[in-house]
Amino acid sequence: MTKNKYNLPYYKINNMSKDFQEEKMLASFLVRKIRPRIKELLPEHYLAQAIPYKKLLFIKEKSKTYPYFLKLDIRLFFPSIHHDLLIKEIPEVYIKIYGKNPTRRMNTYLKSILIKYLDKSPYGKGITIGSPLSYVLSCIFLLNLDLLLPRPFLRQVDDYIIFCKNKNEPEKILKEIVSPELKRLNLEINEKKLKSGKFHKDKVDFIGFDFYAGHFTIKESKVNEFKNKIIKITHLTKKKPDKAIIKLLNNKILGFGHYYKHASCKEDFEKLDSFIRMRLRRYLSRNKDSRNKQGNLLLTNEVIKSIGLKSLLEIKEKYASKRPLNYKKRKGKTMQSGKTIKQVNVLKLEEKVYTYKQDLILKELKTLTSLVKKIEKKMVKSESKVAKKEKEK
C-alpha cells in the first residue's frame, strides 16, 4: 500500500492488499444485487448503462420533448459522504427497490468488510477515490434521490442533468426534491456548476461533451488535458526509443479518438493530429525548435504514418462512413510565429527515415517467408498423401 501523503480518505490510493480484494468482492456483490432492479426502474442510470454514445442519443431525443434542463453537481461529493448515513442508506435503498429486507449474506458483508473499509477514515466521513467499492457506494448513496426525480435525467456519479417541460420546473425540482434530499444526506450543491436553461439557447456540458443547438462538441478543457498528455510523452528529457514513444502516443490517440468520435469534432481532430505530428517530429529530430523546414521535408505525414502513428481523423472518418453525421463548421485561427529556427542535423534524420523503411521491408519479408513455409508444409502433406494412395494401389 502506498503512503497517503495527506492522511485523508478521499485521495487516490493504490492498494493491491487483502483488504483491496475484499472491497472489490463486496463491490461486485452489491452490483449483482442492485443492478438488475435499477435496469428495470432506471434503464438510463449510469450503473445500468455505461456506453457514452447511448447517453448522447438520450440527450438528443429527450431535448425535443423536454426543451428545458437543470444541471447540478455536488460539492466535494466523495469527501462529504458520512459513514453513519451510508451504513443506514444501503439497506433502506434495498428495501425501497425490492420491497424486502437485505439477505443475511449482505448484512454480514456490510458489518465486516464495509465497516473495516470505512474505519480507514478517522473523520467519520469520506471515501477513497479510485476504489471499485467507492464507485458502487457513491451510486447507492444518491439512489433515493434518483428514484424521487419526476422527470427523465442522466447522472454520472454526482453530475446530474434533469430534463424539464417548462422554464419553471427546474426551480421547482431543485427546491422541492433535490435540496431537501441533499440536506438529509448532509450534502451541498456546487453553486458554481448549478445551471438551468433551454437546450437550443444554452450550452450544456456532460461527460466531457458540450451540447448546443443539437450538436455535440468536445469540451475545451478535455482538449487541453489531451494536449498536456501528448507534451509529457514527447518531452525531450525522455530517453525512450522512438518506437516506445509512438506506442504511448497511439494508446492516447485510440482512447481519446474512440471516446469523442461521436461528437462533431472533425476540425478539432485535424488540429490535434497536426499537433501530435509536430511534437513527434520535434522528438525524433531532438531539436528544441519544432518547425524546421528541412526536418519536415524528411519526416512528412506519409513517413510518420508509415512508422506506425495512428490518426484521430482516420478514427473519425471510419466511424462517419458507418454513421454519417452533420459536422459543425468553425473558423480556424491562423498560427503566427516570429521565432528564429535552428537547423537540424539532416543526415541523422535521413538515417532514421532509412532505418524505418528497412524495418517495413523486413516486416514484409517476414510475412512472405511465413507464407512460403505454410505453402511448403501443405505441399509436403499433399505429396505424402499421394504416396500413400500409390502404395495402397
What does this molecule look like?
Helices cover 58% and strands 8% of the residues. The protein contains 15 helices and 7 strands. The strands form 2 sheets. It has a 4-stranded antiparallel sheet, sandwiched between helices. α10 runs parallel beside α14 and α11 runs antiparallel to α14 (312-322). It is extended.
Structure keywords:
393 residues; alpha+beta; 15 helices; three-stranded antiparallel beta sheet; four-stranded antiparallel beta sheet
Kindly state the mean pLDDT as a whole number? Answer: 83
Using the CA coordinates, give the radius of gyration: 28 Å
Cα shape:
extended
* Sheet with the most strands, sense and barrel status: 4 strands, antiparallel
- Please state roughly what percent of the residues sit in beta strands, choosing from under 5%, 5-15%, 15-25%, 25-35%, 35-45% or over 45%: 5-15%
The helix tally amounts to 15
How far is the N terminus from the C terminus? Answer: 74 Å
Q: Which residues form runs of ≥5 with pLDDT under 50?
A: 1-7, 9-14, 288-294
Structural classification: alpha+beta
Number of β-strand runs: 7
H/E series = HHEHHHHHEEHEEEEHHHHHHH
Helical content (DSSP H or I, runs of 4+): 55-70%
Side by side, the strands of the main sheet go 2-3-1-4
Chain-wise SSE layout:
Elements: H1 18-41, H2 52-65, E1 68-73, H3 77-80, H4 83-98, H5 104-118, H6 132-141, H7 143-148, E2 153-156, E3 159-164, H8 169-184, E4 195-198, E5 204-206, E6 209-212, E7 215-218, H9 220-233, H10 242-260, H11 266-285, H12 293-298, H13 301-306, H14 312-322, H15 346-392
Antiparallel strand pairs: 1-3, 1-4, 2-3, 5-6, 6-7
Helix pairs in contact: 1-5, 1-6, 9-10, 9-11, 10-11, 10-14, 11-14
